[in-house]
Amino acid sequence: MNELNTVTFDFPSRSVNEAFARGAVACFAAQLDMTLTELGDVKTAVSEAVTNCAVHAYPDSIGNIRMRLRILEGGVLEIQVKDKGRGIEDVERARQPLFTTGGEDRGGMGFTIMESFMDTVKVRSRVGSGTTVTMRKRVGRRPAGR
Amino acid sequence: MKLTSNLSGGRLTMALSGELDQHAAKELAVKMEERLEADLPRECVLDLGELRFMDSSGIALILRVCKRMRALGGRTRVENVQPQPMRVLDASGIGRIIEID
Asked: A118, A145, B21, B54: least surrounded by Cβ within 10 Å?
């Protein structure tokens, strides 16, 4: 799929940047003709991915988060969130609803929300070197039947 | 993120406004639990009418309130939910265990 536009942000894994990431994706995605529901879905998925970095990738320190946003041909928005944190031991297990290592503050719903709100969610992770989450969603008002 | 609360006849209403993510939830959880402990209500209503955004941190927070209310022998209700938070509530399946208006 051809890339039409892209931006990349590097920011520290401070929880205050969860709101920044949502704002940034909303600004970039304004180039697409999204519905309000789609915009809400995309912002929610980004919030989950960045929260995972702040809570799980770098639990005791502040590390770098790289967020790359791309608009691909056919009205597809791709969001990649990458950290160099501690990694996920068992990705399949981490993706299960209600699984969490985060204690009672976390619900274990992050990946479930990302999967419900985006068309595809790919997770690559290596213990000790980090995690990359790549999500895609086809967006935009399309005539019925197409 | 703003929290206002009102206790009336054993019913504690807590109204949340702003955006509820993990950053906001950390402080909010403490404040909400303090209110529950101070007021010991029979019913807890979470008014989300002014909540513009919520991610799964909100689910964890609601479950926490719900658990505490059950321990107190009371119930929890969520009301005035806006479209984006409602999609998150729906995706989580939390509607099976709490009352949502």
From this structure: A145
